[in-house]
């Protein structure tokens, strides 16, 4: 098993003819991802990269069963692309693009509420279940199939976490990048829940970020969770000098609590195993699985 | 993107919100002329225009600037040019500028407005809800700094989800919170609706009016204004994008930005080149743990060519503070061989006279290592970040 995506997941690509999309779709196909169709509003031919291409999501889903859609569209079109996917009731959308306006995300969050769609991202490397499905831009060549679930708000350090699980000889069940934006479609609790319900996943690695309160919210959720699996948590940035921000409003809504030290403290209290370096992840994993 | 107070006030006026009459001045003589134009007998407020708060409690570096802060009340027209001369071309340090301060290149002159009551208003994107959250408090100015730690209960939060507008019930809540009577309902409703509309229309991430004042006629006036815009939405607002003051930005930051890279400066002597701001943070943590300290970090994004990468690397190599360089790349999107090509191009132009440690992992790693080994440059290779910093520390000691 795995979470969210596997070899049977039928994947649609919105914006399939773009340069980055083409490069990564090809790689995903080579990696075994079941890509069934693409959408590109201005593409005149019926096929691209051996899959049928449609002008709209609605046309794409009328001829093909779709379980998930990856959005490779430019930032300014993410809102309308997401709306198309939500209206087509696609269960999962993964938005790779960085630079989506935050007010658009407020609108997208309102769209998602009460819909049948779950959104991962934006500004995420995507989701990967090794050797089965690669939705996004993860460097699949470093992934190994295994039993550790990785959930991350970071970007590059997610790859570092992947390498650590390899080092421990455990590999990954699924890797989920939540996205590195102020507002994202899905945050930690939902993914932790999925991992805890997945038989194959034996432990979870969480990679956080210094800003916002997402890690605090994850800790709050984890503290109350019954039947929890071990979580090894890491956040970089303890030594970053405090950067002056203009005004006080941001500090007020985060209660002045969005510091790395505070996050680590709260996560530790919730029962997570907090490490100070990514290089300690594999030693902690080895400790857990030697028992 | 941040803008200056005077620009923020222009925006508020365009959206129907009251601000004191005022204008910008670049010289002491101009400041006096402006003061005479806006009011015949004062008093006036003279305000240093830098994009940082707490100017009132700030201080200027250098003797010529006198002892006073960056916001001054002036009662005699004859004093305007003298006081403006103290501010202009001097560096103002406040708790929000860092110790290096900001050079003041312009002052804002406005009429002094007496009000019967001050209060704080903030409006900010709150990701935890998510919503636009309105903050109201009777604590004002820099006293706000202590609020998160000491008196959070003195701030009222009102969340407006997507599609919601502020209701009369919420306005009454604000009035009760500030102990103001219902006579103010219309003026408060008008002010908060306009502010919210401004926030949404312009893709703001933060608006702060610290303080706002209640005038005798119950109307609200914005005595200060800070606005921060979402960089990702500037394509919708070319008129806002044009307000960017390059003077406020570090030239190296702007140079890096031209190639699509993030660049940040600190106090140390190690230059870090990474892909991913999170990787930059872990590098900093590890550099610090080995008794070294970061001078600057450059964050390279995927989807760029080798020439841009070379330009980025040159920014780090030519930073006079840098005595050792750490290149730490975990390539996914970004291919390692491009980094190797970039390193070669940069060193060919500016040479390499300091330790350079390279850790490359991920896409096209082997190809990159071959390129670098064949170059015969004195590059040290590392397996992971810990290893890289350890090797850098040793090389820098040897180099001393």
What this model shows, in words?
The complex is a heterodimer of chains A (291) and B (400). With 291 residues, chain A is of the alpha/beta class. Helix content of chain A is 34%, strand content 21%. Chain A contains ten helices and 14 strands. Chain A has helices spanning 19-30, 57-63, 78-87, 102-112, 156-167, 188-197, 214-224, 249-253, 260-269, 281-290, and strands at residues 11-14, 35-39, 47-48, 51-54, 68-71, 92-95, 118-120, 126-129, 133-136, 145-152, 172-177, 203-208, 231-235, 273-275. The two termini of chain A are 23 Å apart. Chain B is an alpha+beta fold. Chain B folds into three domains: 21-111, ATP-grasp fold, A domain (Dna Ligase, domain 1), CATH 3.30.1490; 117-241, ATP-grasp fold, B domain (D-amino Acid Aminotransferase, Chain A, domain 1); 251-399, Succinyl-CoA synthetase domains (Rossmann fold, 3-Layer(aba) Sandwich), CATH 3.40.50. Chain B has helices at residues 5-14, 28-38, 77-87, 147-150, 168-177, 185-201, 238-241, 251-258, 277-289, 306-317, 336-350, 365-374, 385-399, and strands at residues 22-25, 44-48, 59-60, 71-74, 91-93, 102-103, 107-111, 117-126, 131-137, 155-160, 204-214, 220-222, 226-229, 262-265, 270-274, 294-299, 324-331, 356-362, 379-381. Chain B is elongated. Chain B starts with a helix and ends with a helix. In chain B, 48% of the residues are buried. The mean pLDDT of chain B is 91. The interface between A and B is large, with 61 and 72 residues.
């Amino acid at each position: 098993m795995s979470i969210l995506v596997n070899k049977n997941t039928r994947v649609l690509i919105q914006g399939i003819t773009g340069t980055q999309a083409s490069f990564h779709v090809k790689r995903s196909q080579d990696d075994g991802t079941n890509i069934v169709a693409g959408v590109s509003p201005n593409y005149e031919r019926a096929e691209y990269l051996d899959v049928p291409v449609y002008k709209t999501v609605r046309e794409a889903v009328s001829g093909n069963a779709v379980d998930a859609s990856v959005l490779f569209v430019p930032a300014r079109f993410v809102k309308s692309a997401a709306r198309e996917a939500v209206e087509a009731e696609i269960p999962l959308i993964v938005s790779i693009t960085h630079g989506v306006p935050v007010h658009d995300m407020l609108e997208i969050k309102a769209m998602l509420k009460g819909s049948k769609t779950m959104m991962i991202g934006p500004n995420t490397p995507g989701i990967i279940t090794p050797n089965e499905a690669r939705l996004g831009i993860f460097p699949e060549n470093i992934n190994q199939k295994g039993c550790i679930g990785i959930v991350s708000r970071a970007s590059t350090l997610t790859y570092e976490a992947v390498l650590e699980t390899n080092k421990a000889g455990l590999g990954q069940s699924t890797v989920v990048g939540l996205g590195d934006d102020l507002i994202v479609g899905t945050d930690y609790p939902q993914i932790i829940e999925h991992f805890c319900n997945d038989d194959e996943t034996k432990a979870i690695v969480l990679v956080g970020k210094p800003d916002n309160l997402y890690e605090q919210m994850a800790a709050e959720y984890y503290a109350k969770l019954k039947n929890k699996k071990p979580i090894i948590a890491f956040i970089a940035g303890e030594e970053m000098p405090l950067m002056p921000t203009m005004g006080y409003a941001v500090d007020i809504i985060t209660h002045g609590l969005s510091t790395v030290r505070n996050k680590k403290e709260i996560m530790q209290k919730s029962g997570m195993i907090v490490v100070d370096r990514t290089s300690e992840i594999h030693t902690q994993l080895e400790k857990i699985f030697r028992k | 993107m941040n803008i200056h107070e005077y620009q923020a006030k222009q925006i508020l006026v365009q959206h129907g919100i009251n601000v004191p009459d005022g204008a910008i001045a670049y010289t002491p003589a101009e400041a006096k002329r402006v003061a005479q134009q806006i009011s015949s007998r004062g008093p006036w407020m003279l305000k240093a225009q830098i994009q940082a708060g707490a100017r009132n409690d700030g201080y200027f570096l250098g003797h010529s600037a006198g002892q006073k802060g960056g916001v001054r009340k002036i009662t005699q027209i004859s004093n305007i040019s003298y006081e403006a001369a103290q501010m202009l071309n001097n560096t103002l340090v406040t708790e929000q500028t860092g110790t290096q301060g900001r050079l003041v290149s312009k002052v804002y002159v406005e009429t002094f407005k007496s009000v019967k009551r001050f209060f704080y208003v903030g409006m900010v994107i709150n990701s935890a809800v998510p919503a636009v959250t309105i903050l109201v408090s009777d604590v004002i100015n820099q006293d706000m700094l202590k609020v998160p730690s000491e008196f959070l209960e003195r701030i009222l939060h009102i969340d407006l989800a997507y599609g919601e507008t502020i209701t009369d019930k919420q306005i009454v809540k604000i009035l009760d919170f500030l102990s103001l009577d219902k006579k103010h309902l219309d003026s408060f409703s008008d002010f908060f609706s306009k502010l919210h509309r401004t926030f949404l229309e312009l893709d703001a991430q933060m608006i702060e009016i610290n303080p706002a004042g209640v005038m005798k006629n119950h109307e609200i006036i914005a005595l200060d204004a800070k606005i921060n815009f979402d960089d990702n939405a500037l394509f919708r607002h070319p008129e806002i994008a044009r307000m960017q003051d390059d003077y406020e930005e570090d030239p190296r930051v702007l140079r890096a930005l031209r190639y699509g890279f993030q660049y940040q400066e600190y106090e140390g002597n190690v230059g870090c080149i990474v892909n991913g701001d999170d990787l930059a943070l872990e590098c900093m943590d590890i550099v610090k743990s080995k008794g070294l300290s970061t001078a600057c970090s450059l964050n390279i994004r995927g989807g760029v060519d080798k020439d841009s990468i070379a330009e980025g690397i040159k920014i780090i190599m030519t930073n006079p503070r840098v005595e050792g360089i750490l290149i730490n790349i975990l390539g996914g999107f970004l291919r390692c061989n491009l980094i190797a090509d970039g390193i070669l191009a940069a060193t060919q132009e500016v040479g390499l006279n300091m330790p350079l440690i390279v850790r490359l992992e991920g896409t096209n790693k082997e190809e990159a290592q071959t390129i670098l080994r064949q170059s015969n440059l004195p590059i040290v290779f590392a397996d992971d970040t810990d290893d890289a910093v350890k090797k850098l520390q040793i090389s820098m000691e040897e180099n001393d």
